[in-house]
Amino acid sequence: MRIGTMTSTMTPEATLDAQIQQVVDAEDDGFDSYWMAQISSIDALTFLALAGQRTNRIELGTAVVPTYPRHPTMLALQAVTAQAATNGRLVLGIGVSHKPVVEDRWGMDFKAPVRHMEQYLTVLRSLLDTGKVDYDGDMFRVSGEIQRVTTDPVSVCIAALAPRMLRLAGEKADGTVTWMVGPKTLETHIVPRITEAAREAGRTAPRVCVAVPICVTDDRRGAMEAAAATFRNYRTLPSYRRMLDIEGVESPAEVAIIGAEAEVEDQLRSLADAGATDFLAHSFDAGDGSTERTRELLKSLVGRI
């Protein structure tokens, strides 16, 4: 299982250069990948393109870019540009986001998200792979070309949790990026569905990129309380709620990886045994040097799980 590090936002006092330095440091520390979530503080693809100019080896991924605010033609242009800037190291993670975000924040219609993603992905993949598209669907009708500044193939993963989205990910994407999913859910729900869909479609085994909060600490109770407070909103979003129910837990804190070094290593191995191909470490601070301990443990485990 490859080990990467993940961030979702910039602190108010951070500069763009300081954030890019985190990617440089991740490469220097030997991590396999660095992932940026597209939230509201920084444009993930622009950021990764800039980070690609100061790094040489580390894979750079979005986890994930929401599809509804960006037409697939424009996302294809952004992705190809970032792929050129990173010398072929981009993984484009995309997702439909959530109904409250799409409808209440962006004022858009969240109807038929699986059909939206299927048509979006068809247009996007055609443009990424050939530079051309001629597609006539009920949600997207797109005909045209883009000038690709690189022909390096762009790997595309979609945020897939529900059965129909997992089937789509296996059939037409290179894998999935999950959030708030534990080992039981991976083994019994995520991995079998996406793997079978890829096999039936004649595709290679999909990537299963698993992002969860992580904290190395001796104060498990305190870290659990911190995780419960920090990630409490995810328990109410339907897609994550269903995954927590499959896992048999109530709170997102219960799928977070928390404990001393040996305990955390065991939990990471459980994810690998359940079928995770990539671990995206979303480190959170529980005080008493936990951030530094988490970093050191993850560094020591790269290439060993």
Topology:
Elements (H helix, E strand, L loop, with lengths): L1 E6 L8 H13 L4 E4 L7 H9 L6 E4 L2 E2 L5 H14 L4 E6 L3 H7 L7 H18 L1 E5 L4 E5 L9 E4 L4 H10 L2 E5 L3 H18 L6 E10 L3 H11 L7 H10 L9 E3 L1 H13 L4 E6 L6 H12 L4
Parallel strand pairs: 1-2, 1-12, 2-3, 3-5, 4-5, 5-8, 9-10, 10-11, 10-12
Antiparallel strand pairs: 6-7
Helical element count? Answer: 11
Overall CATH architecture of the largest domain: Alpha-Beta Barrel
Order of H and E elements: EHEHEEHEHHEEEHEHEHHEHEH
Uncertain residue ranges? none
What is the overall pLDDT average? 96
Strand-residue proportion = 15-25%
Number of strands: 12
Report Rg. Answer: 19 Å
CATH homolog superfamily of the largest domain: Luciferase-like domain
Distance between the termini: 6 Å
* Shape by Cα distribution: globular
Largest sheet: 10 strands, parallel
Q: What is the CATH topology descriptor of the largest domain?
A: TIM Barrel
What does this structure look like?
The chain is 44% helix and 20% strand. It is of the alpha/beta class and 305 residues long. It has helices at 16-28, 44-52, 72-85, 99-105, 113-130, 163-172, 183-200, 220-230, 238-247, 261-273, 290-301, and strands at residues 2-7, 33-36, 59-62, 65-66, 90-95, 132-136, 141-145, 155-158, 175-179, 207-216, 257-259, 278-283. The chain folds into two domains: 1-159, Luciferase-like domain (TIM Barrel), CATH 3.20.20.30; 163-300, Luciferase-like domain (TIM Barrel, Alpha-Beta Barrel), CATH 3.20.20.30. The protein has eleven helices and twelve strands. The model has no long low-confidence stretch (mean pLDDT 96). β9 (175-179), α7 and β10 (207-216) form a beta-alpha-beta unit.
